[in-house]
Design the sequence.
């Protein structure tokens, strides 16, 4: 690795802490971002010859703060300054920055920064874009590519998000316990969304979008560093790691989606799985269950099964039952039904999902799963109707291709004249 | 004589490596590993998962208590270790220097090993 690339990794890892501290000083997202940018440029200029400082973050905060104050003074004649009280800590600028960076400040700074970017008043797409721009420091072009929009559109989305946040008034005092846990929950929710944005079903998009999954994991680790005893944060990170571990196995050589039961498990990333399983164990030790823990436990059961047929479906069905109680939703019930179909058979599963027909009528997976249950029960005519409906609702070519495969199987079974055939299951 | 080479690095920096950067460092390291292994001097090698996955049992009280996270909050963390066979400190330092060239940043702590059991035989 060349010097500059090594410096880049240092800058990337220091960035959240630096922007967070600068935001506390300047109370303005744009100013904090520009100051950080300026400090990074100076680092790239100075570190290759002077060597990196022992505490890179403290150096960047100090340099960024001084650079921004200098710039403001230079511009004084050209444009009106922000109000004096908008710039805090000017009087004590001699105090070594490091002294004020005690652990609790640092923790609340970063949480505040994450929370500002994930502010509940922003729509989800703006939350994610802003977090990637400000916290992760991805370029607008990188984010635009990941979201499949033009640079100009993304620039606009980020500008709009910043404007809204300007009016949102996030308090700068240290948050109370209730506030803190609300902020943690909001941030966790956005990391989960960010990951799902990257978890595409289209192989053509996978290269550009993988960065979203990786950033979600990096921010998840950061959040867990800040709150090391929060079982739900452990579980969120575990969930992301366990799902991301399957990334390489999710597509075949032709770019078709490979469903979980058919994946080549030797292509799963064993190191990510080990980390995920360790975190699930750690979370459960706290005996404070929550929805991320249940979902992580389900992902862990899949990860622990050496072969698809070794999957503990009975346990998974129980876990979905628990999730249903915590977060009732027809989609969770549908997932529970799929697990029940494996554990107890298609009849019980079909009975579970029939009441959902109204709510999930426009949902691809509902008709796909229903078709699979009916196929297994050899109710061919009804299965065909369900699959036809599913194929009409497919969101991607891969989803449509999967249903077409089921329809082919149906046609094959019809030609075979009712010869007993074990159908492949859809999950 | 056996030595442990304990690898310390800022894990936030290591986690900020891109997949390609990580793979490049690992490829360079494995060249050194192979060289030492060919001389029959390479013992077990381990890369540890991030400290967020760590749990600590504090046994300075009764009963011991379990804590989430690493034993010590430090700027650099223990991220892995090597056991190597070497005649003397100079030889193990030479190995460490080669490893350092492949993976700059952080520090290697070199500790002579007192007792080593590979766990394969009964005690």
Sequence:
């Amino acid at each position: 690795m060349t010097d500059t690339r090594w410096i880049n990794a240092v800058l990337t890892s220091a960035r959240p802490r630096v922007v967070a501290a600068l935001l506390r000083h300047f109370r303005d997202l744009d100013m904090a971002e520009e100051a950080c940018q300026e400090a990074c440029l100076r680092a790239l200029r100075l570190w290759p010859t002077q060597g990196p400082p022992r505490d890179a973050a403290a150096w960047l905060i100090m340099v960024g703060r001084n650079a921004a104050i200098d710039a403001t003074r230079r511009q004084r004649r050209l444009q009106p300054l922000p109000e004096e009280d908008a710039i805090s800590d000017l009087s004590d600028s001699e105090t070594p920055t490091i002294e004020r960076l005690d652990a609790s400040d640092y923790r609340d700074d970063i949480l505040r920064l994450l929370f500002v970017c994930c502010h509940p008043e922003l729509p989800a797409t703006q939350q994610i874009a802003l977090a990637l721009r400000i916290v992760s420091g991805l370029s607008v072009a990188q984010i635009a590519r990941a979201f499949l929009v033009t640079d100009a559109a993304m620039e606009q989305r980020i500008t709009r998000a910043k404007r809204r946040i300007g009016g949102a008034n996030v308090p700068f005092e240290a948050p109370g316990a209730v506030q803190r846990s609300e902020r943690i929950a909001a941030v966790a929710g956005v990391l989960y969304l960010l990951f799902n944005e990257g978890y595409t079903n289209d192989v053509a998009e996978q290269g550009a979008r993988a960065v979203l999954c990786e950033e979600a994991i990096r921010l998840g680790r950061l959040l867990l560093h800040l709150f090391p005893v929060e079982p739900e944060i452990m579980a969120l990170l575990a969930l992301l790691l366990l799902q991301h571990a399957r990334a390489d196995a999710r597509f075949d050589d032709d770019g078709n989606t490979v469903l979980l039961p058919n994946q080549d498990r030797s292509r799963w990333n064993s190191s990510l799985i080990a980390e995920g399983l360790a975190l699930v164990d750690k979370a459960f030790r706290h005996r404070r269950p929550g929805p991320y823990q249940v979902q992580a436990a389900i992902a862990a059961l899949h990860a622990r099964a050496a072969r698809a047929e070794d999957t503990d479906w009975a346990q998974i069905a129980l876990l979905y039952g628990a999730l249903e109680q915590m977060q009732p939703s027809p989609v969770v019930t549908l997932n529970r039904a799929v697990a029940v179909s494996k554990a107890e058979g298609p009849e019980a599963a079909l009975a579970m999902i029939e009441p959902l027909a109204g709510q999930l009528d426009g949902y691809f997976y509902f008709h796909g799963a229903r078709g699979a249950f009916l196929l297994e029960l050899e109710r061919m005519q009804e299965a065909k109707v369900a699959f036809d409906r599913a194929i009409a609702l497919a969101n991607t070519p891969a989803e449509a291709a999967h249903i077409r495969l089921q329809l082919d199987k149906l046609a094959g079974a019809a030609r075979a004249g009712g010869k007993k055939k074990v159908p492949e299951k859809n999950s | 004589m056996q030595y442990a080479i304990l690898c310390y690095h800022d894990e936030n920096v290591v986690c900020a490596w891109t997949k390609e950067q990580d793979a490049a460092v690992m490829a360079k390291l494995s060249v050194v590993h192979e060289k030492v292994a060919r001389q029959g001097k390479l013992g077990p090698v381990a890369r540890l998962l991030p400290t967020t996955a760590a749990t600590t049992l504090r046994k300075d009280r009764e009963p011991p208590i379990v804590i989430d996270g690493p034993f010590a909050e430090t700027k650099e963390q223990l991220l892995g270790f090597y056991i190597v066979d070497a005649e003397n400190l100079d030889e193990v330092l030479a190995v460490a220097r080669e490893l350092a060239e492949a993976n700059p940043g952080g520090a290697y702590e070199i500790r002579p090993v007192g007792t080593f059991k590979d766990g394969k035989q009964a005690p």
